[in-house]
Amino acid sequence: MSTVPKKGSLFESFRRRIKLEGAISVADYMADVLIAPSHGYYMSNEPFGVSGDFITAPEISQMFGELIGFWCADTWYNMGGPTEIHLIEMGPGRGTLMSDLMRAAAMVPGFHQAVKIHLIEVSPKLRKKQKEALNGYNVSWYDDLTDLPAGPCIFIANEFFDALPIRQFERSPTGWCERLITLDEDETGLVFTLSPPSKAIETIIPKELVDSHEGAVVELSSIAANVSAQISSHITQYGGAALFVDYGWGTPTAKPSLQAIHNHKKHDVLLEPGTADLSAFVDFPTLQKSAEANGVSVHGTVTQGDFLRNLGIEQRAEMLRLNADQKQAIDITAAEHRLTDPSQMGDLFKVMALTRPDQPTPAAFPEQKEAL
User: Burial letters for 192-230: b for 16+ Cβ neighbours within 10 Å, e otherwise?
Assistant: First the structure.
């Protein structure tokens, strides 16, 4: 179902482009919907929290950011405690995770003095929120990873990769095609269509999925792979680590996952572009391949539930309940359940870490077996 859009909306931009150039890729659509300067979702909305469209783990409970803070401090210590460490968060939301992280990590002597905070953020509105949340810290902002500081870094990416543009490919009766977006018959809405089948498309489908059934959809993100490669290359050159937390696939999967969320509810992906958040399940196997190709050791994936339990969320929740009133205690227990239970975020969200091969296995990940 389509609606007649308002003039000047992001839809009008898509209509003009499609009429001039033809159908566009899902990746191009996602990029414009999320970060187009005038009407992009992250540029013109307040997406986070109860009043926004969705709630991320740092907004659910301070425990999430605190435990990641301990993870960062422990990782820094195992690196030999360098006198300067660049802490880089990608897609830092309202700054809640970094604020909780830094508060908890202050318990580790020397860490605060060594840390320089860098945030990767394109939204002016969110930068303002982050500045307020991190008042008192010296923070640098960047649009992307192009100008990474020289020296050891710890990268944090919580629900970052899921918003990076993807392309979709569908197995048709005549071969693999790319899913594209075009105008409907009366040019008042957007619809999906397929490109002609191509052997070139078949070459980029993961070999495990090439023979998938008719109608299968494979989602690939070259941008995500490139980000993983950039981070890994930097770690290989300068030292450091990375922590990726996101919902996604732990094995190659031929299922569509592109979704839109508005006011905490699912929304039509193609309806009123720019008014709802777009995201897709993260392809962790591709992130792993890209990372390993650039010389780092990959740890995980593990489930978010196991990761947080291994870091001590149960003990932290109990400590918080000791000084809480009855309502606060109930809220703490509910937050712990939401973050760790398999039926909530516990299994859906995966965690992966990257380190240099000469570094020990990071906290909360199983020790890697020696190759025979």
Answer: eebbebeeebeeebbeebeebeeebbbbbbebbbebbbb
Strands 240-249 and 153-158: parallel
Highest-confidence segment of 46-55, 175-184, 268-277: 175-184
Mean pLDDT of the chain: 92
Q: Would you say 217 and 168 are in contact if contact means Cβ atoms under 8 Å apart? A: yes
What residues contact residue 359 under an 8 Å CB cut-off, 6+ apart?
Answer: 78, 79, 239, 241, 297
* 76 closest CA partner among 363, 294, 316, 369: 363
Listed in sequence order, the residues at least 6 apart from 113 whose beta carbon sits closer than 8 Å to its beta carbon are 83
pTM above 0.90, yes or no: yes
- Beta strands at 167-172 and 217-220: parallel, antiparallel or unpaired: antiparallel
Q: 368: which residues sit within 8 A by CB, 6+ positions away?
A: 297, 299, 361
Structural domains of the chain, ranges and CATH numbers in brackets: 10-43+167-219 (no CATH), 54-165+220-252+273-355 (3.40.50.150)
Burial readout 152-171 (b: 16 or more C-beta within 10 A, e: otherwise): bbbbbbbbbbbbbbbbbbbb
